[in-house]
Structure to design on (506 residues):
């Protein structure tokens, strides 16, 4: 008895009617089924069906956008796990940090991952913005996606900042004190905004609870919403910008057309001679 | 397409297969410009596969770093015990550094607001969409305006003794002026710099200043926000 090879086994799996009922297609071997793989899938649907070969190159993007999104996913997963061990109350929040360190299995790794990904996301989002700027990715028709990106940058900073208070240690407390004091300097509304944010005039249990809700519910939802818009606009705006090469390509295409037309005319003349 | 077509009229686009070609050129139509599209690949599997690989590499890298780099945890928060200096998270230390020099309304409110507004309006400024180099035309007038702006910036930050704004500004202004006076066939760096548009200069200057402020705020500031050597 011969066993089916790995390819044959995969082939059978993909032609299975249960597989087809889930993925709405068989094996993605033709361009039609490959397109179906994208727009027949609610998650991949946000991607364009085709991409320019150039924009896939590492040097075109350094995959900074996917990296930032990936960090967001890591932060969501580790964040939800951290929520299982965390009480947004002073001083219990601090003791939860101690528990994460000494009691919870892999608690240190969990917190390290969340913190590292948060720091990395700030760096990567800035880097992403500068990279897009230098490549001219904000030029028409991609103006609005740049604005969405600036919104995502601010959300990243707010998310990181609200998370900073949650361990409720000296580092957290005084960093938030310094930051929220600045808000107080905003003319006319500064003190009211600060009061709204802290749930009082000083940083205490109310502030911790508000920062917790902002950090775990409001800001992530806003960020997820803007991320979806950001991705969708890439597709709608005609794929990733190829930067300054775009202009050169246009120029080349016009030259090519002129050359082609000459060739055609020459061909006709030649035939007349014969 | 061309492989299949074998028109009776001998009308085809493949010169090898159908050598006899007939072209009708009417006089009043203008030349048709057809764009040559860059090579495209199917997102599935080319893009999806790459993203999965990139995600896997990032995951491994992230876990390895997280295993060795511990998140800090100090003593329980105590409103009565102020550390000296009290520092914001590192990405706001540039702002805190500015706050040390300038009045709070300027450093904490006005400048951040201006930066955000400037970032938002970048794509709506159509000036110089071609990316024309700063010193390509109108050179003398531009140099006067440029030097005027630099002098104003140096004056404002100079009287507040904000050395970590002044130094990068001087470096960038010198580089730009060097690009102005450079011979057209200078070294690689000079050629690169003289090919940069104004937007490049502004953004690079901004990045340099914010990096310097953040680094000084993070590593060189000690008790009372005085200058110290890192690690002391």
């Amino acid at each position: 008895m011969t066993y089916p090879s790995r390819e044959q086994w995969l082939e059978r799996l993909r032609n299975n009617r249960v597989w087809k009922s889930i993925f709405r297609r068989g094996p993605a071997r033709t361009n039609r089924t490959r397109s179906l793989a994208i727009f027949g899938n609610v998650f991949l649907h946000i991607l364009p069906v085709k991409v320019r070969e150039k924009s896939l190159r590492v040097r075109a993007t350094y995959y900074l956008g996917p990296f930032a999104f990936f960090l967001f996913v890591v932060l969501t997963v580790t964040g939800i796990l951290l929520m299982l061990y965390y009480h947004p109350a002073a001083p219990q929040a601090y003791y939860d940090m101690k528990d994460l360190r000494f009691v919870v299995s892999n608690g240190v790794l969990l917190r390290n991952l969340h913190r590292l990904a948060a720091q990395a996301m700030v760096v990567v989002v800035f880097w992403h913005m500068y990279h897009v700027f230098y490549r001219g990715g904000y030029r028409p028709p991609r103006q609005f996606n740049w604005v969405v990106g600036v919104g995502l940058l601010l959300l990243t900073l707010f998310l990181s900042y609200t998370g900073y208070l949650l361990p409720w240690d000296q580092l957290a407390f005084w960093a938030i004190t310094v930051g929220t004091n600045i808000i107080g300097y905003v003319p006319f509304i500064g003190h009211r905004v600060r009061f709204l944010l802290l749930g009082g005039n000083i940083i205490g249990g109310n502030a911790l609870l508000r920062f917790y809700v902002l950090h775990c519910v409001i800001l992530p939802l806003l960020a997820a919403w803007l991320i979806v818009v950001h991705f969708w606009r890439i597709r709608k705006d005609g794929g990733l910008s190829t930067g300054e090469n775009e202009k050169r390509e246009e120029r080349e295409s016009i030259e090519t057309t002129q050359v082609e037309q000459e060739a055609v005319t020459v061909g006709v003349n030649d035939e007349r001679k014969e | 397409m061309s492989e299949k077509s074998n028109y009776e009229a001998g009308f085809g686009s493949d010169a090898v297969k159908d050598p006899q070609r007939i072209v009708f050129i009417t006089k009043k139509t203008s030349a048709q410009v057809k764009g040559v599209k860059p090579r495209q690949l199917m997102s599935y599997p080319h893009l999806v596969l790459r993203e999965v690989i990139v995600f896997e590499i990032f995951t491994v890298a992230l876990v390895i770093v997280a295993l060795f780099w511990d998140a800090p945890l100090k003593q329980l928060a105590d409103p009565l015990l102020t550390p000296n200096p009290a520092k914001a998270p590192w990405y706001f230390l540039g702002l805190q550094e500015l706050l040390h020099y300038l009045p709070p309304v300027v450093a904490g409110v006005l400048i951040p607001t201006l930066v955000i507004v400037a970032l938002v309006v970048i794509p709506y400024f159509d000036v110089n969409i071609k990316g024309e180099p700063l010193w390509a035309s109108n050179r003398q007038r531009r140099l006067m305006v440029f030097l005027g702006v630099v002098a104003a910036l140096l004056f404002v930050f100079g009287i507040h003794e904000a050395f970590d704004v002044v130094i990068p500004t001087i470096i960038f202004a010198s580089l730009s002026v060097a690009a102005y006076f450079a011979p057209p066939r200078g070294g690689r760096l000079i050629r690169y710099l003289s090919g940069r548009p104004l937007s490049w200069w502004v953004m690079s200057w901004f990045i340099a200043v914010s990096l310097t402020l953040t680094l000084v705020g993070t590593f060189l500031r000690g008790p009372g926000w005085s200058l110290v050597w890192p690690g002391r």
Notes: The first helix of chain B runs from residue 43 to 68. Residues 5-10 of chain B have pLDDT under 50 and may be disordered. The two ends of chain B are 74 Å apart (CA to CA).
